[in-house]
Design a protein that fits this description.
Porin; 7% helix; 20 strands; mainly beta; 2 helices; 14-stranded antiparallel barrel; long-chain fatty acid transporting porin activity
């Protein structure tokens, strides 16, 4: 009996570590923003490196960040974006790593497609209603089944979806205010090895959960050519629940444990400025703060018993960006942008599932108005990740007794198509 219980107890620890990965993934996503968040909610915004999205840069799709934006669009208007994300994340183990002979590592990034939409309807000259839908979080990575870091991760898949009904009012000729309610769903599957032997049996965690939050926004137009916007998306509390499964234990059968952890995804504050210089040129700037440090210590329950508190030690994340639009003609608008993001993941907590690091983004795009009702946006962006070290050693939140030391190099290519349609209404003021 003792031999049976001891392996099971060790599996409890492994499951707790696996759930730790789950919480980290859920709290952030194909991870094109700091941590695990997805910022690619607007095709037009992508072409600007998301500069000025809180002030309407990106058109109606910017309503994802700031619900007050929808007061700039008359009648019934929709904006949908479809984005292909191709990440490259190469992980290389240091030859001194004890398990290096299992395989030093390789590209773990998996491509994905993200869809998002915003719709707005003008009720009268003061009130608008709308809804935004998208995927604020998501991740997909896969390593070789046998590799040097297999006890810390083989596959990671996260799907996060949110829907936000909203209402906005034009309080004055220069001030609009908006508010929304967000329903958010997270689904996570993580796998890793139960040991260091080649082709070691895997363990897995499947978990999901719902949460509710809110969003606030305001736009200020101090002059006919200037728009200032601020948008806030609240934290969302979710109880991520599911099951952890593992290898067959002689005398005890297959390992299957119930797992649960409370999760608060972070607040996001976005500020933007949009300045029209003349009939052709418009410049934009933006800044974003994400409260990743709120993760702190997360209590994990395994089969109803608190196993341990997971220390994430994330820092807050920040991004600054600048962009420009050039109206080539009444039908064609050209866009470009640059952005820099400070990752919330430090060297002390970086792991093999998502080797997040600081990054520079460069983007270009265009908008094409086909007629008074239909317009298209096409954008491309490249994200340059800074080289980063990974040190899973004593003191690291994911350390389970086996050191793993290495480095990571990452970049991302993103292409997005936006479709905007106005149902017989006047042109927007943005």
């Amino acid at each position: 009996m003792r031999n049976t219980r001891q392996p099971a107890h060790r599996r409890f620890r492994i499951r707790a570590a696996l759930l730790a990965g789950c919480v980290m993934l859920a709290s952030s996503g194909a991870a094109m923003a700091g941590g695990f968040a997805l910022r690619e909610q607007s095709a037009a915004g992508l072409g600007l490196s998301f500069a000025g999205v809180a002030a309407g840069g990106g058109g109606l799709s910017a309503g994802y960040w700031n619900p007050a934006i929808i007061t700039g669009f008359g009648g019934f208007t929709t904006a949908s974006s479809y984005t292909a994300i191709a990440p490259y994340a190469n992980i290389t183990a240091d030859p001194a790593t004890p398990t290096w002979a299992l395989g030093p590592g390789r590209d773990i990034g998996l491509s994905g497609v993200l869809a998002s939409s915003v719709a707005a309807y003008q009720i009268n000259d003061r009130v608008w209603i709308g809804v935004s839908a998208g995927a604020p979080f998501g991740l997909s990575t896969k390593s070789d089944y046998t590799w040097s870091g297999q006890v810390y991760g083989r596959t990671s898949r996260v799907l996060g979806m949110s829907v936000s009904p909203m209402i906005a009012v034009k309080a004055t000729d220069w001030l609009s205010l908006g508010v929304g309610v967000t329903a958010q769903y997270m689904d996570v599957r993580l796998t890793q090895a139960a040991g260091v032997a080649p082709a070691a049996t895997g363990v897995a965690l499947d978990a999901d959960g719902w949460g509710v939050g809110y969003m606030l926004g305001a736009t200020i137009t101090p002059g006919p050519n200037t728009t200032i916007g601020i948008g806030f998306r609240s934290a969302v509390h979710q109880d991520v629940t599911g099951s952890a499964t593992g290898p067959f234990i002689p005398g005890a059968g297959p390992l299957s444990l119930k797992a649960k952890a409370p999760l608060n995804t972070p607040e996001v504050l976005t500020v933007g400025v949009r300045q029209k210089l003349n009939e052709q040129w418009t410049v934009l700037a933006g800044f974003e703060w994400t409260n990743w440090s709120r993760l702190g210590y997360v209590p994990v329950r395994i089969n109803g018993v608190v196993s341990e508190a997971l220390p994430f030690a994330y820092k807050d994340g920040y991004m600054a960006s600048a962009g420009v639009e050039y109206a080539w003609s009444p039908q064609l608008t050209l866009r470009a942008g640059l952005g820099y993001e400070w990752s919330p993941v430090s060297n002390r907590v970086r792991d093999v599932r998502l080797p997040d690091t600081n990054r520079l983004s460069a983007s270009v795009g265009l908008g094409w108005r086909l007629n008074d009702a239909l317009s298209l946006d096409v954008s491309y962006a490249h994200l340059f990740g800074e080289p980063a070290s990974i040190r899973i050693v004593p003191g690291h939140p994911q350390y389970v007794g086996l050191p793993w030391v290495g480095s990571a190099k990452a970049h991302v290519d993103i292409v997005s198509l936006g479709v905007n349609y106005r149902f017989g209404t006047p042109a927007s003021i943005f």
